[in-house]
Specification:
Number of strands: 2
Structural class: mainly alpha
Order of helices and strands: HEEHHHHH
Helix content: 55-70%
Number of helices: 6
Distance between the termini: 39 Å
Mean pLDDT: 92
Largest sheet: 2 strands, antiparallel
Number of domains: 2
Length: 221
C-alpha cells in the first residue's frame, strides 16, 4: 500500500522522541506523584479538578500516542487519500505541533503533581496560541479530504470553495493564536469572554462563508 503522506524517519523522528520521552517519564511521575494530582484549571488559573496518580501519570502519554497513530492511519482510510501527497508537509507539521502541545500539557501536569506550581495562564494559553498560529499558517494549503480541515457540504462539493474557505479560516486561526498569546496580560474574566467569543466567530464565519461562496459560484455558472 502506498504511503499517502510520504512519511519517513525524518518526518517522524521528532514526534516519536517526544512520545517516547513522555512514556519513560510517566513511570517516574507515577513513582513520585501523591495519590491525588491536579489535572484541570479554570480560566482564573485555579485548580478545579483532580485525578488519581495512575491516571495523571499514564493518560496523557497514552493519549499522545493515540493521536499520533490516528494521524498515521487517517490517510489510509480516506477515499481521497491521493490528495494527501499535495499537502504532506502541512500534514506532518500539524501532527508534530499537536504531539508537541500535548507533551507540554503533560509535563505541566507532571510538574504540578510534583509540587511545582507554575501559573497555568502563562503556559497553556500561549501553547494553544502557538498551535493556532501553526494551523492558521498552513490551513490554506490543505487539499480536499474527509478528515482534516473545514468540512462543510459546500467545501466538499467544490474545490474553489474549499480553497477560499480555508484561506479565510487560516487568517482567523492566526488572529485567534495572537489573542491567545496576548491573553497572558489580560484580566482572566476578559480573556475568557474574548476567547469564547472568538471561538464562536471562528467556527461560524467559515461555515457561513462557504455557503455564501458556493451559492455565488452557482449563480455565476
Amino acid at each position: 500500500m502506498s504511503n499517502p503522506t510520504k512519511a519517513t524517519w525524518r518526518t517522524e523522528i521528532l514526534p516519536l522522541i517526544l512520545i517516547g520521552f513522555g512514556l519513560i517519564c510517566s513511570f517516574y511521575f507515577y513513582a513520585h506523584f501523591p495519590q491525588q494530582v491536579p489535572t484541570h484549571w479554570n480560566f482564573r488559573g485555579e485548580i478545579d479538578g483532580w485525578s488519581g496518580k495512575a491516571f495523571a501519570a499514564f493518560f496523557f502519554p497514552a493519549l499522545n500516542l493515540g493521536i499520533y497513530l490516528l494521524f498515521l492511519g487517517m490517510p489510509y482510510l480516506d477515499p481521497k487519500k491521493d490528495r494527501y501527497a499535495e499537502f504532506a508537509r502541512p500534514y506532518h507539521i500539524f501532527k508534530n505541533f499537536m504531539v508537541g502541545f500535548l507533551t507540554v500539557v503533560y509535563f505541566y501536569v507532571g510538574l504540578a503533581g510534583l509540587g511545582y506550581n507554575y501559573p497555568v495562564n502563562y503556559v497553556i494559553p500561549p501553547g494553544i496560541g502557538i498551535l493556532f498560529l501553526a494551523m492558521g499558517n498552513y490551513l490554506g494549503k490543505i487539499k480536499p479530504n474527509w478528515f482534516m480541515g473545514i468540512r462543510t457540504p459546500w467545501t466538499l462539493s467544490n474545490e474553489e470553495v474549499w480553497n477560499k474557505t480555508h484561506r479565510l479560516g487560516g487568517k482567523m486561526f492566526i488572529v485567534m493564536g495572537i489573542l491567545m498569546i496576548a491573553g497572558v496580560v489580560l484580566p482572566p474574566g476578559l480573556f475568557y469572554s474574548g476567547f469564547m467569543f472568538g471561538v464562536v466567530i471562528a467556527a461560524l464565519v467559515p461555515i457561513v462563508y462557504s455557503y455564501w461562496l458556493f451559492r455565488q459560484l452557482e449563480k455565476n455558472q
